TrEMBL record:
Keywords: Isoprene biosynthesis, Nucleotidyltransferase, Transferase. This is 2-C-methyl-D-erythritol 4-phosphate cytidylyltransferase. It comes from Ktedonosporobacter rubrisoli. Gene3D superfamilies: Spore Coat Polysaccharide Biosynthesis Protein SpsA, Chain A (3.90.550.10). It comes from the Bacteria.
Amino acid sequence: MNSTFPTSRMQDKSAAVIVAAGVSRRMKGRDKLWTPLSGRMVLSRTVSVFQASSLINTIILVISAERLSEAMALCRNERWYKVAAVVPGGIHRQDSVRHGLDALAEISPTCRWVTIHDGARPFVTPTNLEDGLKAAMEHQAVTAAVPVKDTIKEVQQGIIASTLERTRLWMVQTPQVFSFPLIYQAHQLMRQSGHDQEDITDDATLLTRLGHQVNIFLGSYTNIKITTQEDLLLAEALLQGFAAP
């Protein structure tokens, strides 16, 4: 299931790990990744962006164990020839990412760059992928992010304790793009140190905890993560807007 593109600096051994092993606790019994958006499943919309990108050579898809057979059938039906492996996720998100990185290390040990993305963010764009890869080549570790628009309060026991400085606050998204050896070794070190039982919500956090610098590149406010029923409504509205003339 590998693909070959004309060689260039940005296309040199670049892969993606798409994490789609969540349990959708806030979706009232619905699996957000397998929920239709305007007739096409969330997961299909997400993976197809990476399949279509000339910057991505290989895709590793991380799926909940219960959905493995369905995911492999979906890959065949969608003709995602870049998907080199479909692997089961773990207990925590970082476990799922590590499983994906382990599979990538086995399939493509000379991989230089890896983009890690949440399967529940179907509005990732080709521009996001290009901007992330360019930034990673300069800084080694980067994450998409957008400036916070609202005033943010720190609250303790229902009482406002402080107002945070908005100009310093950014909402972190995926894709997050890394030097593959850097992020792979970071996950191995986290496991060896016994800290892998902590629930680390993204890979930028993992690297900063280990003392590595992580830079940001500008993401998009439409690059939403579908977590709740309300997010599905917003996603449908975004799709209608994208389809409008």
